[in-house]
Amino acid sequence: MTRNFRTTTALAAALLITTAGASAAQNLTMSSWVPSTHFLHTDFFAPFAAQIAEVTEGRVTVTILPAPLGNPAQHWELARTGVADITWGNFTYEPERFVSLWFAEFPNAGTDAEAQSVALWRTYQAHLADLPVFDGVEMLAVGLFGGGQLHHGATQMLTPADIAGQKFRMGGPIQERLLTELGAVPVAAPATRAYEMLESGVIDGSLHTMESVVNFRLEDALTHHTIFPEGLYDAAFFVVMNSARWDSIAPADQAAIEAIAGETLSATWGRQFDAQNPAATEALAAAGHTIAQASPELIGAVDTIYDAMVADWIVAATEAGVPDPATVLGYYVETYAALTAR
């Protein structure tokens, strides 16, 4: 990795004398796969990069690359192998690797993204951080997005009968199972491809948060929105740094970064979505979109699928090395409930 020396040779020598064992000033590269106009770039990643420089007094800086170094599903591996120093992505873009976190994407995970994200961080720290699957990276934050909903381009989806046979874009195994068991046809693709697939007729609808409909500029293609009060599904995200690069940072600067990362950064992630989702809902309603609550029949059908998902996940997570999956899920649910009760 390239190091960025911002001092003169004489000053660098002085620093080496006065800070024995400390790492030299360094620049970290970050690969991100959303455009620079997306709110996650402007309101989350860019400010976090600026904070790192501030709290380390310029000894550690972050350059967000102008283009991603791979597709979204490759970003964990890009960080783990050191191709990029920092990356972010969705855990279940690699579903077999991250079976331990499937529970966070189940239906009814909640619609308070800040509370969700903090609950997931605490669950990760308490029950999952020591699993071998997380080796090779330093976890900087985790996050959820406040409940994904169901969106269609032509008509309202209120009952299981409405959904049957309709083709929906989805992004992971939880969404795939939901759609399949509701009688829909799941089509796997990242959110960044939704517009072209809708325009070409490959799909009839797509699964997104409300903000994603606006931020991925899908409002002309998705005009009917079905709302599940506790979310139809969710998506679990990570922000990670390559472990070797983390270890190369001086302990004092590691401590400074830790103070603005972890639970603090996870909460910040959630707050972004808590601001974006209601604003998007208001904008879509003002544009004349149809926004309706899912029928009790549809919610009941999803609840039945959820119960089966939990039972199957406990078996799969146990096989993946999670010591007590039921306790992990219970800890998340209880933590989220306590946070939202405040």
Describe the structure.
The protein is of the alpha/beta class and 342 residues long. The protein folds into two domains: 26-93 and 131-143 and 236-276, D-Maltodextrin-Binding Protein, domain 2; 149-233 and 277-341, Bacterial extracellular solute-binding protein, family 7 (D-Maltodextrin-Binding Protein, domain 2), CATH 3.40.190. 45% of the residues lie in helices and 15% in strands. It contains 13 helices and eleven strands. The strands form two sheets. Strands 7-6-8-5-9-11 form a six-stranded mixed beta sheet, sandwiched between helices. It has a five-stranded mixed beta sheet with strand order 2-1-3-10-4. The longest helix has 25 residues, at 262-286. The protein is globular, with a radius of gyration of 21 Å. Mean pLDDT is 92; it is low at 1-23.
